[in-house]
Amino acid sequence: MLGLNYRQFKCDNPAALHVVLIHGWGLHSGVFNKIIEPLRAFAHVTLIDRAGYAPSPMMTAAQETQAILNIAPPCAIYIGWSLGGMLVLDLASRYPHRVMAVMVVATNPCFVQRDDWLCAMPLATFKAFEQSVVDNMYVGLLRFIGLQCQGSATQRHDIRYLQEQLMARAMPNYHALLAGLSDLLQLDIRQTVQVLRCPMIWLHGAKDSLAKADIDALFALNPLIAVSTTSEAAHVPFVSHPTLFVNTVKRFIDELQHDQF
Q: Which pairing describes strands 43-48 and 6-9: parallel, antiparallel, or unpaired?
């Protein structure tokens, strides 16, 4: 059976809740390295490399979903970044008994503009970026890193960190990147968001140019959504503001535990 690469870090407290982190397009789970140790101070942490991101092999979407469920604890809090946020929302919808709560980071229910969802990337901008990846995958990934960090208070540092993570492993599978771009273009998960009833928090950077947040539109989809915005962050708030990000996760978990008793 095909399996995904993963890493697990145990909290010293055996009763701690489990957190599963799912990365987005273009970068493997090493993107979360800054926050592993702070998170494991209060949670058991699992990081999964998605299909086609080294050393995980290529597989179908259905196989990837099953592989994630095989790795993950029986019930966990899922944190999904960017395209990974779409995946964890889908998991919460289809496997509610496995997903205690969801945190989506720098995610948009539609990443590309639609007539009835304008708070997203213009189609022409997306197509130009997609073509840059087709023309030269490596150059396209470097361009994407720059776009993710654009506007952040720590932009130069963030770019350098993400470039180091990109180079730490083999490049992502080209076909995995193209499939991910297709998902970013086509996926519309607004109906999924509307019906979810598990605890949800949406984390955004105010400077994010890739997944612009329209808080009113999110609340219109589902009034149960909580929103947290980091004023000086862009698309990777866990890189630019790791302490603030981890503190937000801690508060969310504390609230979940309080509601259980």
A: antiparallel
